[in-house]
Write a structure and sequence with these properties.
This protein has 59 residues and is mostly helical. It is built from two helices and no strands.
Length: 59
């Protein structure tokens, strides 16, 4: 993974502001879809980071 990709996972994605979503349901992808995708990736990265840290401590 590139350094740029790694830094993308360091900060939790921020929820879209109320004025960033039209609420119409016709945008593809919606800002909320993008947020959920980024958050899922961030959570997965955080879990892997915790798992790796625990493994390093036990070795």
């Amino acid at each position: 993974m590139s350094t740029e990709a790694n830094t993308a996972f360091l900060e939790e994605p921020k929820k879209p502001k109320s004025d960033e979503c039209c609420g119409g349901g016709s945008c593809c992808p919606c800002v909320w879809d993008l947020y959920r995708q980024k958050r899922q990736a961030w959570l997965k990265y955080q879990q892997q980071k915790i798992f790796c840290t625990k493994n390093e401590q036990t070795n």
